[in-house]
Design goal:
mainly alpha; coiled coil; 1 helix
């Protein structure tokens, strides 16, 4: 009986050890599976982060391009605005010159009319003296 109880005790110990090893392997398998799942999630997040970084970089480049384009358009608009202001100033100067020339023309017309009237008066006097 002692041998049987020793055998039983050894069997229990061996069974316990085998059970512990088996449980450890199961826990180890669960841990490995859990670790693999977490690694896959981390890898997936890393890939997603890289995609987002690439997208962010592309969007930053596009924003920079659009800002440069906006600056070019603003500059062009300001140049056109300056040109329009210059043309308005030139138009006003031309209108002023035209008004001045109209006045000079009217003065010359009035002088010519006066000379013509004076000439006609002198011609009448000459005709009257001839008679």
């Amino acid at each position: 009986m002692e041998i049987e109880s020793t055998g039983l005790a050894i069997g229990l110990v061996v069974g316990g050890i085998a059970g512990a090893i088996a449980k450890g392997q199961l826990d180890s398998n669960k841990s490995s599976n859990l670790l693999e799942t977490k690694n896959n999630q981390i890898n997936s997040l890393i890939k997603e982060k890289e995609l987002l970084l690439n997208k962010n970089t592309k969007l930053s480049e596009e924003i920079e391009y659009l800002q440069e384009e906006n600056a070019r358009i603003k500059k062009k608009f300001n140049q056109h605005d300056d040109l329009q202001d210059d043309l308005k100033d030139e138009l006003e100067d031309t209108k002023t010159k035209i008004e001045k020339l109209k006045k000079e023309n009217q003065e010359l017309f009035n002088q010519a009319k006066s000379y013509k009237e004076a000439c006609e008066a002198l011609e009448r006097q000459i005709e009257a003296l001839k008679k």
